[in-house]
Amino acid sequence: MKTLMLGAAMAALSTGVSAQTIGFSQIGSESGWRAAETTVTRQEAEARGIDLRFSDAQQRQENQIAAIRSFVAQGVDAILLAPVVATGWDSVLEEAKEAEIPVVLLDRQVDSSEDLYLTAVGSDLVHEGAVAGQWLVDNKPEGACRVVELQGTTGSSPAIDRANGFRQAIEGTPDIEIVRSQTGDFTRSGGKEVMESFLQAEGGGDNICALYAHNDDMALGAIQAIKEAGIDPGDDILIVSIDAVPDIFKAMAEGDANATVELTPNMAGPAFDALAAYMADGTEPEKFIQTESALYTQDDDPMAQYEARKDLGY
Ligand code: AHR
Predict the structure, then answer these.
(1) Where would one find the signal peptide in this protein (predicted)?
(2) How far away, in angstroms, is 290 Cα from ligand 1 center?
(3) Residues 291 and 264: beta-carbon distance below 8 Å
(4) For 200-205, what is the mean pLDDT?
(5) pLDDT, tens digit, for every residue of 70-99?
(6) Is the CB of 162 within 6 Å of ligand 1?
(7) What is the percentage of the chain residues whose pLDDT exceeds 90?
(8) Ligand 1 within 6 A of 85 CB?
(9) Percentages of the chain per state (helix, strand, coil), in multiples of 5
(10) pLDDT, averaged across the chain
(11) Domains of the chain (ranges, CATH numbers)
């Protein structure tokens, strides 16, 4: 049965006679990075003649589970899943497996057994946090450095791993202390609101040396809050975050942000490549297809970086 299904999908891929159908359960549109991932996935699908069925979960896991069940009922050839949180996927992934529909995870991880999905495309999220932490170790001012942290969505793999990676990197530097940590849910408005509360709780910005935000959108919201409080972001408070969205490069060019770790929005390209090989002859991909995590600072011509990314759908 599996061979027959693979054969049919292979014929569709090689002849282009009938499009392959792939369901995509996306988390939502919480950040510029997420919007870009959606745009790039649509573009990659179109370029390959794939019929992409898109479902926006609006940040809710139950919506993603319903979408996967619907894709299974529709008999799609494969499913892309960007899982909002790490736990709670076993049953629905087992249903997809039972239906012999391969699932590819995009950008976030799940706690489920590896045999429930074909492969996962993403960055090393712990490493991203460690790169951000190391930047601070190398660039902090002399003496004690009190850090505030804006975490991503609670229970999501990037929030868990980016928090851990950062802590691993600063562990050997007792001068650096994380004094406040709260989720901003990966949104710009969440980042602004939580940063306002950090500033209030700290009696202003004098005692805060740096902000570590798990994504650029939260950093951008925080930068606004810091400016409104009459403090100079990028100088009085160092700003390090993750994603490399175009707006963070603008902020860097203006001296308001210091460093970001890039997360490519093109997870779909490697995912579709892995699916094509699997469907062609059953080639099993690596369980984890890793994307790059480059660090960018104010020294990396931020406006050129902005120009290079501004048309990617951020
Ligand atoms: O899972 C990746 C993260 O999700 C991105 O860093 C963040 O911007 C998005 O919301």
Answers:
(1) 1-19
(2) 16
(3) yes
(4) 94
(5) 999 999 999 999 999 999 999 999 999 999
(6) no
(7) 93
(8) no
(9) 45, 20, 35
(10) 94
(11) 2-122+265-283 (3.40.50.2300), 125-263+298-309 (3.40.50.2300)
